[in-house]
Design brief:
The protein has 2 domains: 56 residues, no CATH class; 66 residues, no CATH class. The chain has 4 helices and no strands.
C-alpha cells in the first residue's frame, strides 16, 4: 500500500503509475509520506511518523527500477545492478565470487559457483522489477 507523495491519497493498486486523484506520477512530490500518507515538510528526508526515506538525499540522481532490474537479470553474476544501486559491498562479493568461479571452472566446482551467483543476480533482478527491492543503497526510492 502506497500513498501519493503529492496529495496523500492512497493508490488504488501497488502497480499504479499515477495518482487517480491528482494525476501526479508515482514517486513524485514531497508533501506527503509514500508509506503512511502523513504530511511532511518539503525539506524532510525521513518521515517522522513511520521513519521511511522520502526524498533524494543531497542532490542524488534517482535510479531507475527498470534499469536496475534488467542489469540484474542480464549481468547479475557480475554485480552490475548492485554497483548501479550503490550496494557496493554486495556487488564486490558477487564480482569476486564470479571471477573465482571462472578461475576454478577447470576443476568443476567453479562452474557451480558461477551458476549460483548467476541465479542470485537473476533473482535480485526479478525482485527489483516486482517491487520487492524498492530503494537504492542510500535509501532513495527507485523510480518507475
Amino acid at each position: 500500500m502506497y500513498f501519493c507523495r503529492n496529495c496523500g491519497e492512497i493508490y488504488q493498486t501497488d502497480e499504479a503509475v499515477m495518482c487517480a486523484k491528482c494525476g501526479t506520477g508515482k514517486g513524485q512530490g514531497s508533501h506527503f509520506c509514500h508509506s503512511c500518507g502523513k504530511p511532511m515538510n518539503s525539506d524532510q528526508t525521513v518521515c517522522m511518523q513511520c521513519g521511511s526515506a522520502n526524498k533524494l538525499s543531497s542532490g542524488a540522481a534517482a535510479k531507475s527500477k527498470m534499469t536496475a532490474g534488467l542489469l540484474g537479470i542480464f549481468f547479475g553474476s557480475f554485480g552490475v545492478h548492485n554497483f548501479y544501486l550503490g550496494y557496493t559491498t554486495k556487488a564486490v562479493i558477487q564480482l569476486v565470487c564470479t571471477v573465482v568461479g571462472l578461475l576454478l571452472s577447470c576443476i568443476g566446482i567453479g562452474v557451480l559457483i558461477v551458476i549460483g551467483i548467476g541465479i542470485w543476480g537473476f533473482v535480485e533482478g526479478i525482485m527489483i522489477l516486482c517491487g520487492k527491492i524498492e530503494t537504492d543503497g542510500q535509501g532513495n526510492l527507485l523510480i518507475d
